[in-house]
Amino acid sequence: MTYTSRARGVARSNCPSATLLLQPLIDPSRNVNQVDVYSAREKEALFAYQQAVAQAFREVSDALAAREGYANFLRAQEDQVAAHVLSPLAWPRS
Question: What are the structural domain ranges in the chain?
Answer without folding.
Answer: 13-90
